[in-house]
Amino acid sequence: MNSLLNKQQFTIDPKKRNQFCRSLIQTWETLSLPTEKEESYRKFPISALDWKELGFDPQEKKTKIEDSSNSVEKDLVSETILDEIFALIQQYLPKDYFSYLSVLQSPGIEFFICEDGLVTPIDSSLGDEPKFSFRIFYVPKGKFSQIHLKTQSNHKSDSLHLQTGIDVFISDKDSQVEILDEENYDEDLVQFRTVLLLSKDNTSVKYHHFPFGGFRSKLLLHSHLLGKGAEVTVDGVSALGKRNLKDLDMEMHHLADHTTSKITYKAIVTDRSHHVFTGNLIIPPNLKKVVAHQESFNLSLNKKARAEANPKLEVLAEDVSCTHGATVGDIDEEQYFYLLSRGLTPEESKSLLVTAFYGETIHSIGFQEDVKLDLESSIHTILVGGK
User: Fold this and answer.
1) What does the DSSP 8-state code read for residue 158?
2) What distance in Å separates the CA atoms of residue 166 and residue 86, rounded to the nearest whole number?
3) CA angle 6, 7, 12 (to 5 degrees)
4) How far lies 17's CA from each of 4, 197, 211, in Å?
5) What's the confidence (pLDDT) of residue 301?
6) Is the pLDDT of residue 91 over 80?
7) CA distances from 19 to 25, 88, 129, 299, 363 (A)
8) Cα separation, 310 vs 293, whole angstroms
9) Exposed/middle/buried for 303, CB within 10 Å: 0-12, 13-18, 19+?
10) Which one-letter DSSP state was computed for residue 11?
């Protein structure tokens, strides 16, 4: 179910959607279910998943093609815009089994034109059946937009259930967009998700990621800086408890001169949770004036919890400025005992230090204060009581 402040969601002609899907089938037929032998899945226990329990057969290469004879009542996206967008997606869509699965198995494409103002699609799902989704967010030339994604899941049984999805954000020339991506999932969800950022000339993209809940989650975020002067900033906070595993794989592809990117990601783990962050900065030869930075900060609140950071650089150009860094640690004991000496309880001291760890990330978001307070509340709900 989607809720919009304005009329910003448009319909894609089923014939165009079917044509696009058919253009992907040849590549789709070459892809197979990934295993831990592949670099991007080596930390994700995909071989341990019970596909029968998830109600999905990964060996079936089905494609959901709509009936083109269905009548269309909503406003249609122009063919000129669609042809360009589909061409970009086909070119830069990760050659990943679940990325293609999300496109080809989704019942349709949700298309949003994000002009000046706030776009707030809310996606709620209930039940145990596998779910597939495909959304496109297009920011026209010279426009500024804020997008607040709120995705949540609930179900009634004790069995695991599957969700795969892909979200594509395309920023046209001279546009600016800030994206707040908030996920709240039940503890039995197995999720595979792709986020594709495509940025043209002189664009500014800020992407904030806050995933909460779930059982097993794999995220592929691929950002392509396609035009001169493009700037992309990615940050976020993962708060993990219980036996939750999140495996985040983020790539920044610089494809033009005078481009700038930065990834700053934080994770807090407690109980028996496990967080994996892999970041990769990719800069091909002959590019000029490229600036790229990557940072991963991880805080563990329990000796049985795990956090891993894997920063990577693939820099083949010379006129660049690139840095990377990563930390994994516990609460600072000196700061903790100092707060205790000032009269705070152990719980208050711990809460204050954890809040300080992620607070800067939340306060840097350009959304309203009540949104930020909700994010803080979600993090506290997960971490309170962590040993």
Assistant:
1) S
2) 14
3) 145
4) 23, 20, 30
5) 92
6) yes
7) 10, 15, 27, 47, 44
8) 14
9) exposed
10) B
Cα–Cα nearest to 276, from 295, 248, 303, 304: 248
Which helix (H) or strand (E) element contains residue 147?
A: strand 144-154
The first and second tokens of residue 229, run together, are: 């002067």
CA–CA gap between residue 67 and residue 129 (Å, rounded): 22
Q: Do the beta carbons of residue 333 and residue 305 sit within 8 Å?
A: no
Residue type, 175: S
For the CA atoms of the chain, what is the radius of gyration? 21
Mean pLDDT of the region 60-78: 66
For 292, the 3-state DSSP assignment is strand
Q: State the DSSP code for 68.
A: T
Query: What sign results for the dihedral spanned by CA atoms 175, 367, 197, 137?
Result: negative
Cβ-Cβ contacts under 8 Å for 71 (sequence gap 6 or more): none
Q: How far is CA 28 from the centre of its chain?
A: 22
Distance CA 136, CA 84 (A): 13
Q: What is the pLDDT of residues 250-287, one digit of tens each?
A: 999 999 999 999 999 999 999 999 999 999 999 999 99
Tokens of 351: 């809460």
Structure tokens at 11: 């319909």
Closest of 275, 278, 297 to residue 360, by C-alpha: 297
From the list 231, 178, 251, the residue with the least C-alpha distance to 209 is 178
User: What does the alpha-carbon distance between residue 363 and residue 6 come to, in Å, rounded to a whole number?
Assistant: 27
Torsion of CA 30, 35, 41, 46, to 10 degrees: 120
First-to-last alpha carbon distance for the chain, in angstroms, is: 37
User: In this structure, are strands 9-10 and 110-113 parallel, antiparallel, or unpaired?
Assistant: antiparallel
Torsions phi, psi for 18 (to 5 deg): -65, -40
Tell me which residue of 207, 209, 205, 158 sits closest to 186, measured CA to CA.
158
Contact between 266 and 236 (Cβ < 8 Å): yes
Helix (H, G, I), strand (E, B) or coil at 56: coil
> Looking at the predicted structure, is the pLDDT value of residue 67 above 70?
no
- Residue 268 is predicted with a pLDDT of 96
